Amino acid sequence: MAAEDVPPPLEGKKRRVGVMTSGGDAPGMNGAVRAVVRMAIAKGCEAYGIYEGYEGLVQGGDMIKEMQWDDVRGFLSEGGTLIGTARCMAFMERAGRLKAAKNMVVRGMDALVICGGDGSLTGADKFRAEWSGLLEELVQTKELTPEQTAPFKHLNIVGLVGSIDNDMSSTDATIGCYSSLARICQSIDYIDATAFSHQRAFVIEVMGRHCGWLALMAGVSCGADFIFIPEKPPSEDWQNEMCKKVAKQRNMGKRKTIVIVAEGAHDQELHKITPDQVKDVLSKKLGLDTRITTLGHVQRGGNPCAYDRMLSTLQGAEAVNAVLEATPDTPSPVICIIENKIVRKPLLDAVALTKSVAEAIKAKDFAKAMQLRDAEFGEYHSVYRISTAAELPALMLPPEKRMRIGLIHVGAPAGGMNAATRAAIAYCFARGHTPIALHNGFPGLIRHHSDEPLGAVRNIEWLDCEGWASKGGSEIGTNRGLPSEDLETVAFVFKKYNIQGLFLIGGFEAFTAVSELRKGREHYSAFKIPMTCLPATVSNNVPGTEYSIGSDTCLNALIDFCDACRQSASSSRRRVFVIETQGGASGYVATIAGLSIGALAVYTPEEGINIKMLDKDIDHLRETFAKDRGQSRAGKIILRNEKASKTYTTEIIASMIREEAKGRFEARVGVPGHFQQGTTPSPMDRVRAARFGVRSIQHLEQFFGKSKDEIAMDPMSASVIGIRGAKVQFSAMEQTEKYETDWKDRRPKNEFWLGFKGIVDTLSGRPK
Ligand code: ATP
């Protein structure tokens, strides 16, 4: 297009924000596009979709299209990327970027949100750095006039990391990595069953050319015997190292062997390690019947998991905020997540840091490579090593420092309870402690008769719990009963079995149990021991943490349920589902599920339900169905927490909608109930459970050697472990129960997620 054909700059017009997906596709990319498009429109901008990654930006024309609110309907639950992606060689050259710059100006766009991997974000950063030079050249060559380029002096670039490998430094998780991990773990769980049956060994190759995150996390989630990752290669003598570990497990009686090999695996001399080599070693040296499974592109596909839907939605919304807040001096940001906190970091630094990991590996500086990955990575690697029951002489304590540690589950089962217990037990063995399983919660202890062969207090062997990494429910039995049912007997049992530290896993009841035991120290010295609680509940309502293990499994079960409901409506008439979620008096599950499925409205106990709210929402439904041109034949979802209102029950809300719809659409009720506890725990619940399990025992160890009174005086001796913002930390029970707990409603006083509800509403177009 010659300069004279180009429309004038858009003075006084709406700001135009472009969004693209680039590099390898990753589940969750569509959620990011939806959030950017809708948030941009909600904030008074126009949104443009750039199709096929940088190829679309270079070619322009029909590959850059304005996107309306309804164009992204249904995007959240779709895998891959619906606006396409491509590897674009032209953009690698300046000439290609020149064309891209011209297209941006021609279309009046000065802001670009790019969801892709490190390559895509490197390209984005280069584009931004060259921007003024590109515009100057376009003016010099008369492709554009100075007047046309004048309003576009600054290019706003915001990066969203979309990649299944989780290979970007600066963020704990990339959009897509947990969905990919879910696919891998599901496959390994299937393989596990056949490996066990035939006593076979399986070598499983997973993606990750430069990053071992998927292999490492799959190793922790599935209790693999050995893993090969690029950042921490085994010694040159890896064949013997692996055989020693595998043989040890087999000698203990283990019937199966799982070895995970990252695509980019190599030894310390950078010689590639292939699944075939690993198979040969296992077959020839150990005589194991060994098979290879290469998971390949299965790892990329499929629906995004709950976490990726939530992450992409929150990050997409944040990207638009970053665009609107940018000044000429603000460095281009990349939107990251650290533990539980969405943060902006300079794109340039994140790209440089990521590159330096690859360079460190190339230079065989593996210690540096590990250090440059986020802090979590190193910790997970230790958890993996500990939970393979490897010989770790450096960890073993002298006999006089070893403890007898009780492990107990309290409350309803939640995904990850067994994984946490298994990891804690593995760590106990690595240190020489004696782990003691206290079966069936506190009522189990209270009813305990030591003369029964299967009493409630049992020592545990590694083989008993080795297979628990992926098991749902509670293998040692759980119970809602509290110690206050009979504190005296509980104290008696603690004393009798010389319990020197207590690790409790469970929901609000486990939290309450620690509080009761702490207060019980006044009368019973048996409670003057260190104790810590790992929150595990689908409701995520435990004070002291923003994340309870089991809540991710619950969200995944719930979004599966909602997707099925919605799909069931696609072939029939227009339908609204009012779905009742668990969560007790906490609206967490309803709200995060609402973010993850794009609910039309979410009703929480925190906000309650009133007639005006229902009236507005029914009006909104009426309007949405009226202007719909066929897309919303798939159902709409309203999520109602089980305790949101005593009056407006799920049934009543559905009836009210039905009545008001006057036949134009219909309403159904869905109550997933216990289905929300899920079956197999999600990988996120498994890995976090393992990490927190190890940390919890490490915390208890700190009290070794202290007198009972010193322990009782130390507020941290009764604690709860949790994620708070960007940190994992222990909180003193005394403070947490006093200042942070809403005892009446059994939830934290300040719930971190309350602000997310506004995002659900904005993105569903719910009237204020
Ligand atoms: P994945 O993590 O899936 O590999 P990625 O974003 O790293 O995703 P790449 O193929 O490396 O995938 O990059 C995608 C596109 O980004 C490239 O095809 C190219 O158009 C652009 N790109 C990558 N690196 C650069 C660069 N150094 N300069 C300019 N553009 C680049």
TrEMBL record:
Pathway terms, separated by semicolons: Carbohydrate degradation; glycolysis; D-glyceraldehyde 3-phosphate and glycerone phosphate from D-glucose: step 3/4
Gene3D superfamilies to which the protein is assigned, alphabetical: 3.40.50.450, Phosphofructokinase domain
Spans annotated as C-terminal regulatory PFK domain 2: 404-768
Catalysed reactions, semicolon-separated: beta-D-fructose 6-phosphate + ATP = beta-D-fructose 1,6-bisphosphate + ADP + H(+)
Cofactor(s) required for function per UniProt: Mg(2+)
Pfam families linked to this entry: PFK
A GO CC term attached to the entry: 6-phosphofructokinase complex
Annotated GO biological process: canonical glycolysis; fructose 1,6-bisphosphate metabolic process; fructose 6-phosphate metabolic process
UniProt binding sites for ATP: 24, 87-88, 117-120
InterPro entries per the UniProt record, alphabetical: 6-Pfructokinase_euk, ATP_PFK, Phosphofructokinase_CS, Phosphofructokinase_dom, PKF_sf
Signal peptide: none
Regulation acting on activity, per entry: Allosterically activated by ADP, AMP, or fructose 2,6-bisphosphate, and allosterically inhibited by ATP or citrate.
Location relative to the cell: Cytoplasm
Subunit structure: Homotetramer.
Protein name, as recorded: ATP-dependent 6-phosphofructokinase
Gene source species: Lineolata rhizophorae
